[in-house]
Write the structure tokens for this entry.
Amino acid sequence: MKLGRTIGDYAVNMPVVGSVARSLQDRARRLHSRGPYRRGSATAAPKGLAASLIQALPGGEPAVPTVAEWLEKRWWALHPLGFFPIPSAGPRLSIVTDSVGAASLFGGVGTALVLSALLANRMGATLRLITRNDPPDTSAVSRVLAANGVKLETPLEAVFAPTQGGRELPISDDDYFLSTSWWTTRALLSSVRRDRLAYLLQEDERMFYPHGDDRVRCGQTMSEPGLLVVVNSQLLFEHLADGPEAIPDLAERGDWFEPAFPAAGRALRQPDESGRRKLFFYARPNNLRNLFHTGLEALSNAIASGTLHPAEWDIHLVGKDVPDLLFPRGVRPKRIEGLNWSEYHALVGSMDAGIVLMDTPHPSYPPLDLAAHGAAVLTNAHGLKTDLSFYSRNILLEQPDMPSLARGITRMVTLARDHATRSANLRADQICRDWTVSLADVVERLAGNFTADARQGEPANVRLSRSA
């Protein structure tokens, strides 16, 4: 192999055969990057060197992928996890997610880690973290759990299982799984029994896509018969169970919980003696559901009209891929991204008001974060999401059109200036601040389902029992 590589490296520098050799080398690297070849698989090795030479020669026919190769490339994120059977060493709960890097630990991923830790504690199970896009960072997991007031009382394993080229993982009759997206759910349904799996659903994931292949596959996974689904918030659960395009049987096979915000207290900070106030604007231009441009226009109009006067308000654009922009009246906002957990909560706790748009049925975390710290928050209505005062009267809703948002910003500014009302709303809110309380019922149901399954004495791996 080394001799062949040496000859190839020499050949690429020869004037006559260099282009052919370079093409062959590039083709070999592409084939090698697909991972090991299996007899009869969609990625079977090309048939002979002669075919490769013909395809690489100038004027030769280009390589034509098979339909199986094309589809495997298209649905790379759904590639099944591979497992091999081992004797049981006790219960183990595996959470499967894309990444637990520092940039992905807010919101949904953090919630998934908290739920998995509490469930592992309840079951007395080892917690195994499986990531598919990036190698796992166990120190980041520890920081997230600590920031959320949760302690893992069982051993932690971490493994990287990429969609291509990953090694098989051990599985026993006491293995259980928590998926965190429709694609990790679909990958697991190809590998393990569905009654060993729970799907944590934190948004109507169909809304991530325009109508097309991804949306169809996503909807099929969300509607998988017999699959236990745990939904983040009662509002989202009601949308999925009874709203447009309701998911069949979700009311029977699903459960829900409300998120918790342990970093927030019940005391509102004192106003700035200078009279200046801070506004949080959720700025994620590449997450289309955040209505970045709609919010940007409404914010700009409010500054131009004097509703958000630069003599009173400091504007903070908080999010990801935040552009450098100049608002009317020469206002240059502060751009903030890449915060860790403690930095983010310190920032949220310093805000007097926030504008957070989210064109989905979920209430979204930043409005609850801000309200839990006492800020006046404006967000938008969507479907069944028409009123969030049951969380806090510091959260205001309007339709996402310019006249409605202008009215909402005026209401938000009035509330932000009313320290006594905001403080009373903060003391009376119904936002949970303890994950062990908010997740107690869900953890009991999941543990009960998995324990009942274990009593049946059937193996976890579908290859050892029945098909998924």
Residues 440-456 form the longest helix (17 residues). The first strand starts at residue 83 and ends at 85. The chain has three domains: 2-74, 78-260+458-464, 277-428. DSSP finds 17 helices and 15 strands in the chain.
